[in-house]
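User: Predict structure, ligand 2-acetamido-2-deoxy-beta-D-glucopyranose.
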Amino acid sequence: MGVLWFLFVILAAGKALELKNQQYHQMPQLFQLDDYEKCLANGRGAFCLGSFNLVAPPNNRLFNVIQKISEERYNFNHTRIHRGYCVSSRCSDVEEVSLRRKFVKCVKNITQTHHGFDAKLSSLDYCKTSKTPPSRPIDGLDVAFIYFSGLILLMNVIGTIYDFARNPDHKPNRYLITWSLVESWKRLANSYESGNPRLTSLNPINGIKFSGSVLEWPS
Ligand SMILES: *[C@@H]1O[C@H](CO)[C@@H](O)[C@H](O)[C@H]1NC(C)=O
Ligand SMILES: *[C@@H]1O[C@H](CO)[C@@H](O)[C@H](O)[C@H]1NC(C)=O
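Assistant: Predicted complex:
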């Protein structure tokens, strides 16, 4: 029984593949990517990347086939095509000032001319020229750092508010008062005039503490 089932799967897969091979080259290519580096190496180069949905006239035979192929579980969705064009060279005959519109018109024109389908922009990833400053995407570590800094800032706010609101005659909560900016500034700027010779002899340390905080300030 297991062997029969296995054979059935192989045959079914073979049939699907056959259909795919037959029609494959009639479909608009899933991806078309121009050479990004070469494009932007030119001082006037411009490169756009985006995805488009194919739109066909009703009852278009090829489009129905494409939809059917796309519904198969392990196939790409071929009704959504992905294009990365060197707009400055590939689309030089499209009259548009806006890069985005130039790109969209260009993809529409090429898809229409080669396959007879309309293409509707579904998402534009970017348009870049050689003058666009390079950007680095925000990653998990950046987000963690933002949360961490935000938490410290929040504790400062809570501590400072607590410091202002508390009754000065009572002993402050030492966990909250640690975060108070006013209290921290006092501790940073004041030396301990305690009259205790052991503490007074440590006064130079305050200088180091202060220089340390000034040095750390710009970072
Ligand atoms: C393929 O993509 C199009 C456009 O995003 C969507 O409408 C359609 O449902 C998708 N088809 C499948 C089988 O996922
Ligand atoms: C595509 O662009 C060419 C050249 O600009 C133009 O002659 C042609 O009519 C356009 N085709 C479509 C379908 O827009």
